[in-house]
TrEMBL record, chain A:
SUPFAM superfamilies: Eukaryotic type KH-domain (KH-domain type I) (SSF54791), Nucleic acid-binding proteins (SSF50249), Ribosomal L27 protein-like (SSF110324)
Keywords associated with the record: Exosome, Nucleus, RNA-binding, rRNA processing
One Gene Ontology CC term in the entry: exosome (RNase complex)
Organism listed in the record: Forsythia ovata
GO molecular function: RNA binding
Chain segments carrying region Disordered: 229-248
Protein name per the record: Ribosomal RNA proCES
Biased composition (Polar residues): 230-248
Automatic annotation (TrEMBL), chain B:
Protein's recorded name: 3'-5'-exoribonuclease family protein
Record carries keyword Cytoplasm: yes
Protein species of origin: Forsythia ovata
Organism taxonomic ancestry: Eukaryota, Viridiplantae, Streptophyta, Embryophyta, Tracheophyta
Keyword Cytoplasm attached: yes
Alphabetic keyword roster: Cytoplasm, Exosome
Amino acid sequence: MRGLQLSLNKNQKLRVERALEQLESLSLKSNSDASVTVADNISVDCEDAILKGHGTTELDGRVVATLCGVVERVNKLVYVRALRARYKPEIGDIIVGRVIEVAPKRWRLEINFSQDAVLMLSSMNLPDGIQRRRTAIDELNMRSIFEENDVICAEVRGFQHDGCLHLQARSQKYGKLEIGQLLTIPPYLVKKRKQHFHHLEQYGIDLILGCNGYVWVGEHVEVKDPMLVDQSNKSEQQNADSENSMSANEVETCTPLETRQNICRTANAIRVLSTLGFMITVEVITEIVNLSTSLNLDIHEMLGPEFYVLVAEKEAERRSSLRKKR
Amino acid sequence: MEYVSPEGLRLDGRRPTEMRQLRAEVGVVAKADGSASFEMGNTKVIAAVYGPREVQNKGQQMNDQALVRCEYSMANFSTGDRMRKPKGDRRSTEISLVIRQTMEACILTHLMPRSQIDIFVQVLQADGGTRSACINAATLALADAGIPMRDLVTSCSSGYLNSTPLLDLNYIEDSAGGPDVTVGILPKLDKVTLLQMDAKLPIDIFENVMQLAIEGCKAVANYIREILLENTKQLEFRRGV
């Protein structure tokens, strides 16, 4: 079995197989012959007017796949949706990346794409929330914003003329991510949705499902509206600023044990799901976290073989109930 | 020495036009973008593909296509006598080059400009035909990494011993000193991308031997296609809607 290097005993093996068979039978009805491999013919009904999309090419007048994946048809467009491939950016995607270089006026980020992405100093809001021209002093202080190896959340802005991928972080919700874990999963498991930032209130954690397959699980940080911050700052300053900053620092330095455990539990749930190759959404993650807590499993036990089997069974159950509802 | 017995059986009990057992697995290296292991009888090879990713050496970056690199190595324990081979000896640099050129011919490099694709192949067990096994493993790994390709490249070797054309030589037959023809083809396009032979053969016999190797390549291609299709289906149904 792919990616699953576990020592399952006979009983567990049987259960996993049964769960997977169930999953297969659930999906078979929708598209059975849509999977293609490299150099397979794609049957096209109306030969005269089709548009060849990604992952296809023409050979002797026939459409041929150049990737392994699933054939998708949208009106006249025929393309192959690759499964295991690197991330392909689309404008507006929310991504998580790691700074690898601080260059003049820009940061270079590793985002699981075929090139490094660029975040310009000018395409991000300064932490103090001031809109102004970036000066040479700002440029010199770039390391005070992001350093090498920092994990950052940003949005895809688009490709520049020279083919570089540019990012932007023009809101308080984007920026440096601290106190948490970065997980790397295959990008095809992340579904594009309206919402990629999630605040799991019951655990006090933030979850960012980056479209590029980088997932951030960290302590919840209150997003402050810059306008509100300015106002509150003014009023606070009148009171007693030194006292305030002291207490804020103290809170920041210690993350409660419970939150840390929740971070680890959520991270392990994502690990299990991605190894099994299941689609990753908030609902599924919370379900798996609840499953582990209801079974009173320790965090490290979540990566044991038994839990993998349970997750596979749970997923099969979930999908079959979804189907029944329809 | 007699390589084909009067009954028409080879040293390992195969018929002259019989291949060794094939076995392939996709996704064996967790951290790689694509990976595969490929076995032809006792020859076992593992391949890992990284990329397309940012070019490491900026000087090599090309603005219109991807840079393909390949590294071939043999594990110390892969052969009968355990030897510590220096990295980058003549043999392995030559095979690296061969694999790189063969794979470059089928990868659609113009779709991934300013990036680099690294292919690492390692021989875990050597029993003849490592070159072909490496190419087959690399094809599988590239397809697994979701890199667009014109066609799958498959490769197979054949030889000529005791005036019989033999398919898929093993180590003993390979070291007999007879001609050894390694062929790599694009099965769909029906084109040859690799042809190597390090001995002399009359042209009419050569054609027979090469034809035999091409038949072998096609059999390998069918097998690889099956594996990939099975893998794609698995990934898709597990992912769900």
